[in-house]
Amino acid sequence: MSKKSLLFLIIISISVLIFSLTTADAKSGKGAKAIFDSGEGPSVGMSVTRAPARVSEAPAQKEKYTGISYQLALLSDDGQFKIVPKSRTFRTGEKIKMLIRTNRPGYMTILNVGPTGRTNVLFNDYVEAFTIQEIPRNTNFRFAGNTGVEKVLVMLSDNPNPIGNQTTTTASAPPPPVNTTAVATPPPPPPPPSSGYETATSSGTPLPPPPAAMIASIEGAKSIKGSKDIVVEDSMQNTYTVVSPKNGWKPIKGGMKDIVLESSGGSNYGVIPASAIADGGILTLEIKLRHR
């Protein structure tokens, strides 16, 4: 057998192995996309204390997962939208949309936080599972003004988000580099009587006003030793965490180490056990858009 034939066989064998591993991962529900699509994955509630399973034991139990998926769509010169990787650096004048969906129904709130600290509520509504939301609605993001890093916070919860009652907050700052002229969205439908979201503590004390305190808490949590149990960052420093309005909008411990991330073909997935957002927790994704 010639060297070229041997090399060809080796390449084919490696390709088949990679494909087999990828397929097995998807079938077993280990990948973020597979878990996002199915809505469930391996149980992690006992991942710290439970001894390794024996071969004779029954298959591991599964639990429900909550996830957010997003894509960045760039408006090209021919007027068509093209999906681009999250690592792209945007230029002044470029226009984009964000395509966001969840794998379960819930209340979704989306904020734009500019480099100056000015915050705009872009979306605040109840969403159905696997329904694509175009953000912003009826218009586009346009990069203008000062360059820097734009932050988009995507928040998903079982109950209405108190942040949705706000429109714009600022700290004596000029207009943000991203120009959004989206039509205001209607308020979310009221929650069922049995699951009303408390915008105050049980004693009647109003909850701390977001999002300034929340953003500061998330940024501070990133510098804490062992913070991967509080926040998780992907390769582009986009952050996933669970915040608690009842605890001053701070990221809560526990569960974040079990989050599963995956990016493929411009689609980005982040899933976490549904138990992590129980008791009023809000799954929060911080997306960073770089403008140069």
Question: If you had to describe this structure to a student in words, what would you say it looks like?
Answer:
- By secondary structure, this protein is α+β, with helices and mostly antiparallel strands.
- It has one domain.
- 15% of the residues lie in helices and 35% in strands.
- It is built from three helices and 18 strands.
- A hairpin with a 5-residue loop joins strand 13 and strand 14.
- The N and C termini lie far apart (54 Å).
- About 24% of the residues have low confidence.
Structural class, judged by helices and strands?
alpha+beta
Give the topology string: H per helix, E per strand.
Answer: HHEEEEEEEEEEEEHEEEEEE
Major sheet size, sense and barrel closure: 9 strands, antiparallel
Q: Oligomeric state of the chains?
A: single chain
State the share of residues found in helices, binned by percent: 10-25%
> Per the principal axes of the C-alpha atoms, what is the gross shape?
globular
Got a strand count? 18
User: Helix segment count?
Assistant: 3
As a percent range, the share of strand residues is 25-35%
Q: How many domains comprise the coordinates?
A: 1
- How far is the first residue's CA from the last residue's CA? 54 Å
Stretches where pLDDT is under 50 for at least 5 consecutive residues are 6-28, 46-56, 167-188, 190-203
Please give the radius of gyration in angstroms. Answer: 21 Å
- Summarize model confidence as the mean pLDDT: 75
